[in-house]
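Blackboard transcription, Thursday session:
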Amino acid sequence: MSERILIIGAGAIGAFYGAALQTAGANVSVVCRSELDAVRANGFSIESKRLGNRTFKPVQTLGTASDYQGGAPDYVVVSVKVVEGTDRAALIRDAVGPGTAIVLIENGVEIEAEIAQAFPDNELISALAFVQVSRVAPGKVRHFAFGDLSLGNYPSSVTERTKRFAALLETGGIKCTMTEDVVTVRWQKCLWNAVFNPISVMGGVLDTGHILGAPEGELFVRQAMREVCAVAAATGHPLDETLVGQYVEGTRKAPPYKTSMALDYENGRPMETEVILGNAVRAARRENVAIPALEALYALMKMVERKTALI
Amino acid sequence: MSERILIIGAGAIGAFYGAALQTAGANVSVVCRSELDAVRANGFSIESKRLGNRTFKPVQTLGTASDYQGGAPDYVVVSVKVVEGTDRAALIRDAVGPGTAIVLIENGVEIEAEIAQAFPDNELISALAFVQVSRVAPGKVRHFAFGDLSLGNYPSSVTERTKRFAALLETGGIKCTMTEDVVTVRWQKCLWNAVFNPISVMGGVLDTGHILGAPEGELFVRQAMREVCAVAAATGHPLDETLVGQYVEGTRKAPPYKTSMALDYENGRPMETEVILGNAVRAARRENVAIPALEALYALMKMVERKTALI
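(Written on the board underneath:)
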């Protein structure tokens, strides 16, 4: 019998991976809020060079998890964007049964503990998407580049259910990397995200070329990245510090581009400040690690959010 | 015989104080660049509630200091905006005679040494304008609020010529405060400017209400201000640290407004990053004072300038 999967928060990311899972033969349903009618009528239209252009019509298209029919799903995939005030546990509670594995496909660091505490008896799979995918119209999703997923069980291990989930995605065309230490992988991604994302919002907005184009810019980026390394190490997840140089050089070599947070800012959408930067800042405070550059960026982001909240 | 005064860089500030000096009976000429033809034809039109609406027609309206006729002036007033690459000494050299006093009416800290070194035998008067005045059209200047000037000789003292200059301004309607320690007064003004100005450029742009509206914002402002106090103290100009709270509370009580740097940024004009913040940062590095918040702001400003330079 095919796996029953419920995707909660079917935005661009959820729709993209949901389409891949359905291609692999899974029984995929979605909970989506703002575009419910469009998706119910036509499903998702996915444009992707890698996966091909296709329509993804979920088995059940729901406005809330409590409407899910046929018993608890095998996997609940959480791909809601986490902004201040998002209560993910409440969003998924009605769909989580005793045997349901919860899969988080979300940005940020230290995003698992809240879910692990709310569902202590469920398997928790933490996944990071390395993908450039956007919603371009109601129900329409465009995949620009990448697509790989890194995943593992929280806090550490890779179970058979995780392998099965990865195998489905691979069958659906997604390259998966399984890891016994997904928390460290989150910190590795945070090393770039917690630095370039908030900086990119400054000066409304900066692309990676502006950021690394000023000599002071590169020094500041390196300082902030070393601070992320220090926090990660203090939480028991030391990073290879040569990553700092690799990330800087890699970013410099790529054509200038805008981060996801810069795009959110430009488009008036809420930014993932708290999971990408705020959680790193709180981890540093908890572990007594000095992070002056990250603290400055965090304070400036809260001022910018204050402005966008008032608009 | 009336004092001969040459104002170099007759933008809004220079025109405003020049008008006051002329009202007091001085023989006032100007060097202006971009609006030379308009000013030659019609003089400056000044709109001001405090000083009245008036036309200020300089005795000589020049494109360069070397065209000044009738011997060296008694005072050369420098009111050019100081941005990266501005060589003020070169701009004024041809008009400075042995007996000329040089008056700087400019923003920033540590802006005097360069001129003192270039003209070691001339009296140097350093002045800070507390005024809200803008150029609204070629040759047209609008005075919105304030207008007071603080001034004293550099590095310290108040000479007869300084008193005479202040007396002229007072006669022309400008309230002057003379100080034996103008460098400390510069640091006092920097305490607000070096913090609120760069922050205001972030998130393109923030007004004082956004900045102080977020709790993290006020904490960051206070931290950055304490850093300015530490730098000022290290340079031999300790500030009363209760100023930090006074400035924060005073700013909070005023209606939200945009700093001069935010307005420059919005209007695509060069920003005074280097004299307002860069000089404070360099002083801190020279004196080995840790200023992580100011360093972060400075790095971010250089990235923003990188962007504006590329536009």
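Lecturer's comment: Chain B has two domains: 4-180, 184-310.
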